[in-house]
Specification:
By secondary structure, the chain is mainly α. The protein has a domain at 35-102. The protein has three helices and no strands. It is elongated. It starts with 9 loop residues before the first helix and ends with a helix.
């Protein structure tokens, strides 16, 4: 079995860990304020758009030689997973809407 630990640099792992700690601290700091479903969807859509935009910028930088191939591949994989999740969520929302429309009044 191959060892894949060398694929992701330790700095990325440490950065992700640090961001998750900040997210947990922010969540614990405001337990009384509940976020609405619409606000959650809006924030997720904005984050998805930002991920795709950042991936596009890295891809462009890769074409000009300002970014490494690994950075381009990582950005492309992030973009692909974001688009897949967005499409899956959209499909579920459409299914739920259609189910509601079929309900008898």
């Amino acid at each position: 079995m191959a060892d894949f630990t060398s694929i992701r640099p330790n700095t990325l792992i440490q950065s992700a860990y640090g961001q998750s700690k900040d997210l947990k601290a922010a969540t614990e700091a405001q337990p009384e304020k509940a976020e609405s479903f619409g606000d959650m969807l809006r924030a997720a859509a904005a984050q998805s758009a930002e991920t795709v935009r950042r991936g596009d910028e890295v891809s462009t930088a890769g074409l000009t030689g300002d970014a490494s191939i690994q950075q381009v591949v990582e950005a492309t994989m992030d973009m692909e997973s974001t688009v897949r999740v967005s499409v899956a969520v959209r499909d579920r929302i459409v299914e739920a809407y259609q189910e509601i429309m079929r309900m008898p009044i």
